[in-house]
Specification:
The protein has four helices and two strands, in the order αααββα. The longest helix is centred in the C-terminal third of the chain and has 15 residues. The model has no long low-confidence stretch (mean pLDDT about 90).
């Protein structure tokens, strides 16, 4: 099997890893960065993914969609005590999570 074909990236364009690092360092909320970096959050997220499996918004019997993102119903920046409450989170597919995040950003004025 051939090796991966190299992609040509202009020298001025940052690598995906560099973009991720830049986002976390300069644009992501420090409160959320601290929360999502903890081992407690990673264990909690893994447990929710294992228990629920399907997207809680768009999955139906006819069209099951795997959930990949654990979404807080009430933002942890508003109430950090609810960050690890199972009733405050839902498992969403990438599409549902992106649209919900965009709605919340619009409400916050970002």
């Amino acid at each position: 099997m051939p090796k991966r074909i190299p992609t040509l990236r202009p020298a001025w364009m940052p690598t995906p890893a560099a973009r991720h690092t830049d986002y976390n360092r300069n644009r992501r909320d420090p409160v959320l960065l601290e929360l999502y970096g903890t081992s407690r959050w990673k264990r909690f997220r893994s447990r929710i993914r294992a228990e629920r499996i399907l997207c809680e918004r768009c999955s139906t019997r006819e069209r099951p969609v795997v959930g990949v993102e654990v979404h807080h119903k009430i933002d942890p920046r508003v109430n950090m005590e609810l960050a690890f409450e199972e009733t405050n989170v839902e498992l969403l597919c990438k599409s549902c999570h992106s649209s919900e995040t965009a709605k919340n950003a619009t409400r916050r004025g970002q």
